[in-house]
Amino acid sequence: MSAVLDVKDLQVSFHTRNGVVRAVDRVSLKVGAGQTVGIVGESGSGKSVTCYSLLGLIPQPPGRIEGGTAMFGGLDLLKLSEKELQKVRGSRISMIFQDPMTSLNPYLKIGSQLVEPLRLHEGLDKAAAWKRGIAALKEVGIPEPTTRMEQYPHEFSGGMRQRVMIAMALITRPELLIADEPTTALDVTIQQQVLDLIKDLQKRLGIAVVFITHDLAVVHEVCDVVNVMYAGRLVESAAAADLFAHPRHAYTRALMRSIPALQKKGEPLYTIPGLPPDLSYLPSGCAFRARQTPGRQALCLIDRQPPLQEIAPGHWVQACPGCVEGGLPL
Amino acid sequence: MLRFTLNRLAQSIVVILVVFSLTFFMIRLAPGDPFASPKAMPPDVRKVLVERYGLDKPLAVQYFTTMGSYLKGDLLPSMSYQGMWNSKIIKDAFPISLIIGLSALGVALGLGLPAGIIAAVRKNTWLDYGPMSLALIGICLPTFVMGPILIAIFGLKWRLFNVAGWFEKTDWVLPAVTMGLIYAAYIARMTRGGMLEVLNQDYIRTARAKGVPGWRVVLVHALRGGLLPVVAFLGPALAGITTGSFIIEKIFNLPGLGQHFVSSVFNRDYSLILATVVLYAVLLVAVNFLTDLLVAWINPKVRLS
Amino acid sequence: MSTAVIPATLAPAIRPGRSLWQDAWARLRKNHLAVACGFVLIAVVLICFVGPRLSPWNPEVTNLALKASPPGTMETLADGSMAKHWFGTDTLGRDLLTRIMRGGQVSLMVGLVATSVALLIGVAYGATAGYLGGRTDAVMMRFVDVLYALPFMIFVILLTTMFGKSMLLMYMAIGAVEWLTMSRIVRAQVQGLARQEFVEAARSLGLSTAVILFRHIIPNVLGPVIVYATLTVPAVMLLEAALSFLGLGVQPPDSSWGTLIDDGATNMETSPWLLIYPAAFFSITLFCLNFAGDGLRDALDVRGGKD
């Protein structure tokens, strides 16, 4: 399968007064056509920064892309100028964000925000763009789209706003959609509707999706491939079915154990002890040693960072002897 | 909208009434009266004057007759400028203050807005530090220092403008610039603050993710929200700017309205004080009303009620 | 342009046991410019209050032989030794530096006293309105709105004429006008706090209103109040200077920076130093006060306010 997006060894750091924060450290991921690729991790694991840096959306300075490539349709996104990136953003790669309440401009009409990508990237005149906007609202299931176009964000509910965001992201029919925790801020009932909408549109339009979330249940539902991130690095990467059937890394297993739905009734909820490490003072060895994940800390690497290793076809894991279940093949 | 207007009108009438009453009684609490001038006045002359202006009547009677004339649109004659009507004094002086005030506002907005926007967009670069340090200096340089400096440079050294007075067509320039620079400094700081707040919002990130070019992000997506604090500040400030500044008028020797605010208090010119204060209050109320309309126009979330 | 994400780990790591104030202090110390301004302010205060004792000149003794002499002029003292007029002399031959120091005492005291008065009235008024809420609050704040509609200058002048020319009363008159904004800020803060859980909790424990106000609410309003007070001092000093410039403030032979600047502006063409030095002292002090206030605002993370 040809890859829509092929990221190799992406390195991003933030140079702050308190030191250098290595937010993303040699992350590689591939997104095939029509595929949904999940990036999972706790907050601060670098999953959002990974995606934002691809589109030049991290503040620079203090952010800096230190290395790697991100091939997208023959272009290396990391080498593009801001002007060239502007032509990609919202036209060939779109994004939707976590909080629909704050992600729409409260001072502008829904309609004019919605059709802005069309006006910018396709040069449509106002009337034609407006027509497409109405169709786009209809597509995401917003009733009375003609009236809704004239309204302002505060007249929409959270779920409706996220639908608008989705319509806005897809209005130019991009090749890739990056969804940054699109359901986290929504009510549980609305979450499912929005997920279904994304899945449905993806199938119909055949776009590839990068799905950022901390919710493994969501990943399980929508993703074909899952990447687990921790402390700015990839921990495990595999096809979703494979990963859920055979989680190899201790951290992945800990994450799965902490899904409430998968726990037995009456048992105390499992939580991963401790906090992710400070990214400006990363330990020299395995980053999980201090967190007593369900591995054997005694065996963890302490002198070097464990490399990624393919332990089964298409199944990559950070090869720390203390963290990988069943030991490492040599 | 209609309800809002009526509501506001009722409120404004109350405000003006309270201001009218407060001023009427407070000025009479101050020691002395309009005719206690330094040069001793023969008692009989004094008596005639006191009677002519009705100052011998009970306070309540004075209060209601004054209010009656105001309701008829009559601002009464001045007590210190014999034979002058307050409405004539205001008609002569107010346009001068208005011209200077509005030009000052132009200077302030023309300098302050761009400086604030650029400083916010280029935060923590010399385009931020430079204008903002200038703005802070501007705030700390009082008009009565700025004015003489400008006079020294443009009036005395280069002889571009008259040093003082109100004779030629260009006489508004130096006073307006003096006044405008101070306000420009305030506006620049407020604009920067407002823009910074907005530029950190999620919806700016959304705009950038849509591929909106940088200048368009600033002008279309950020400016409206970023300017709200400036609009809220400018409304009330406008009343003060256009009714003249006594200091500016003293420095540049201008026959504006600001001088009457001060001299009328000294002269205990009860009627002129009242006229100027009520004018100010009416202006303020009107400007506040317009500000609210403007804010509601900018921010669709605001409901006029 | 700074948008988009900064990783959560950029936030300072959690350090247990550090209070809000310690945190603010640490932030303030990192703001070198604000700290520098703090030191300049201390220096200005020391110069104004200790300086006159060390100066060989009496700021009230005139010497018409040496009137309006430029900076650096020497003069023979009563004991026969020579001393320098560092900043020159004024039109009556008085040493300018010493007069600036004396004037500074007045200007700084005005700033301090008037701000205290404004603080006292504003905090008490705003806290009461915000805490009581409802109709009382509405009436109290409407009154503030009305006072805003009075031209400020008239108010001050009226108060100064009513209280005569006593300097202390003038301070208080200025303070009595400057409390309006303070009361608005405090009221908004208190209103927000009064609805928060810890206040509810205190109330459910049966604490009296006064105890809740003083123990729980006022300490929490302190941040914005300190910041605004720091920014009120320069505003008040500016107002005093303006009044003095108009001849309404400090009366001769006393002087303040405002009267000195007024003198200077009159004699700007012949003796520019008479304007430059007092204006410089005045502006540097205001600059530092504003900058220190901004620094405090950032350190205490106070949002909103005037700008």
Explained architecture:
The complex is a heterotrimer of chains A (330), B (305) and C (307). Chain A has two domains: 3-92 and 174-318, P-loop containing nucleotide triphosphate hydrolases (Rossmann fold, 3-Layer(aba) Sandwich), CATH 3.40.50; 104-172, no CATH class. The model of chain A has no long low-confidence stretch (mean pLDDT 85). In chain A, 31% of the residues lie in helices and 25% in strands. In chain A, the strands form two sheets. Chain A has an eight-stranded mixed sheet with strand order 6-7-8-3-9-10-12-11, sandwiched between helices. In chain A, strands 2-1-4-5 form a four-stranded antiparallel sheet, with helices on one face. Chain A is α/β, with parallel strands linked by helices and 330 residues long. Chain B is mostly helical and 305 residues long. Chain B has a single domain (86-304), classed as Orthogonal Bundle (MetI-like fold), CATH 1.10.3720.10. Chain B has helices at 2-29, 43-52, 59-71, 86-121, 126-140, 143-157, 173-199, 202-209, 214-242, 246-252, 258-266, 270-298. The longest helix of chain B has 36 residues, at 86-121. Chain B is flat, with a radius of gyration of 24 Å. The model of chain B has no long low-confidence stretch (mean pLDDT 86). The longest helix of chain C is centred in the middle third of the chain and has 37 residues, at 96-132. Chain C is elongated, with a radius of gyration of 24 Å. In chain C, helix 1 packs across helix 10, helix 3 packs antiparallel against helix 8 (209-245) and helix 8 packs parallel to helix 9. Chain C has 307 residues and is mostly helical. Chain C has a two-stranded antiparallel ribbon. Chains B and C meet through helix 1, helix 5, helix 6, helix 7 and helix 8 of B and helix 4, helix 5, helix 8, helix 9 and helix 10 of C.
